[in-house]
Every structure is written in C-alpha cells, then in structure tokens.
Here is the input.
Amino acid sequence: MGNQVNEALVAARAEKLFFYSPYNFLRQLEVDVQQRLFGTGVAGQYAADPTHQVFEFAEGEDTVQFLYTLLTWDTDFFRAPVYKLFTILFTSATSAATLAAAGTAFRQQLKQQGAAYCFAELPVEDTRVAQALGNAGWRLVETRLTFFHDAVASFNYPRYPVRSAGKDEAAAIGRISAQARNDYDRFHADKWFGDELGDQFLAKYASASVEGYCDDVLVPNEVSLPVDSFLAISDLHQHANSLHTGFSRVVLTAVGPANRGWHLKLVSETVHRARQNGASYVLMTTQATNRAVFRTCEKLGFKLGGSSHVLAWSA
Here is the structure.
C-alpha cells in the first residue's frame, strides 16, 4: 500500500482501460480524451489523490497493482468501511494463477484495513479482471446495460405533461424510490445490504437528487393524477465540456402502481428536454434483467451501447 502507479502497467492495460469510459461506444467522441478522463489518465494519476490507495503484489517477475479507495459517504451511511476498486494493473504475460494469488493477497489487505465491503464496476471487455476477482472469492451482484439515444435533435415522440419536482417533495420522492423495489439492482441483489437497508439507501439517494444532487427530477403533471413516479437527470456538465458535446443521463427512476405506464413518458420527456437544451446524447443504464426498460428503449429509439458487471467482496 502507498506505492506509486507503475506507468508500464498502465500502458500494458491501455486497450482495456479505454472501456472504463462511460462513453466508449460513442464513436464520434475522441478516444484520447476519453482515455485521459476515464482510462489511462485516471490510472496513471491515481496515487496523486490522497484518498486513493495502491496495493502492489509481486511474484517472480510479475507485478500486479490494485487501485482502490474508501468511499466516505457510503461508509457513513452503512456504518461500515466501504471501498471501491477502480481496476487492476498487470501485463498480458501475467498468468491466471498469479492474478488469482494477487486477488487473494488484496482480499487479505482489505481485511487488515478493516474493510467491510468492496465492490468494482467493470466493463464486460475486461474479462481478466473479472476472472481474477472471481478466483479470489468475489461475487457477481449485477450486470448492467447502457442504452443511448443519439438522434435527439430529430426526436418527435408525443409530449406528456411533466414538471420538475420541488425540494419540498424530496421526502416523497424518496418514498417512491424505496417502495418501487428492484430485486436486481446491486443494493437488493447483494444480500450484504439487506432489503430494508437497500430501500433506505435508494430513498436517501432519490431525496438527494431532488435537493440538488441532480440537475432535474421530472414527475407527472397531470390533473387528478397523484405523483407516484419520478426520473432524475444529470447533464454531466464537466464531461460534456471536456468532450465538447451535450449529455443527459437518467440517474435514477422509479414508477409506483398509481403511475403505471409513466416510465416511457418520463424517458420520452427526458429526450425532449435534452433536445431543448441542445444536448446530443441521452444515456440510460439498467439491469440486464429489466425487460420493461428494454421495451421503452425500443419504442423511443434508444440503442444498446455497452455492458458492465458489478462484483463485490465482503468480510
């Protein structure tokens, strides 16, 4: 722990690190900029952040590095030390046995630091990292698909009455999120959290979205219809500025029984909002099990961009 990042290992992993960009499937965006923002640039400068940690494992001529960090907000909420692994660095010559041994050593390092939980979100292209973690006892808790809409300027789906949620509705939005439980999101699929705590986390997250964490939260605005659904949006301003384009990302959405059918309407209005704001892309990530979202994407003209796995370890 405390080692500097090995530049040669970053270079060896450059091809896979590109896929850590959440926009790797948008071919119009510059590869070099995406690498700097999300891939080799992040890995190469990882140790420069004092909250980041580097664990190094050496065996023979092989060196393996784990880049990870303590998540203070999550740690406070769950009242247990929660870590996130960014990635693992190694060369193509590193054997599966060495990676497995490195994974076991990293697991021991986490235990020594008092970690209760550690997770990683890996692009599906990074199979060797997923295999190394699996061999070290990590479990798969969620597989995600990211859809994108790149014809925002010409989007002409029918309009629906929506409005932005007010900050005084934060608690209500939180309750909607908690009650619309999704057994396949990582907070419910991974039983380390437990259903009740998973509900509480998503309620807090949804409330924070209304209170300023997100750029907008859309809710139905139809006469005599109770608000029992919402869709939180981030416009990803920092990424958009760096990549010289405009984004809107669906961060979180939930639909209760009183608003059946409103997922499609809220997503449609998100695309209209992006068009009005001059954005080029709308992004939406969901679980690979969420067939209802697939149908929405098909109807509204979204395309499948990429996929990722969430793996986790707990003490």
User: Anything to note?
Assistant: The chain has a mean pLDDT of 97.
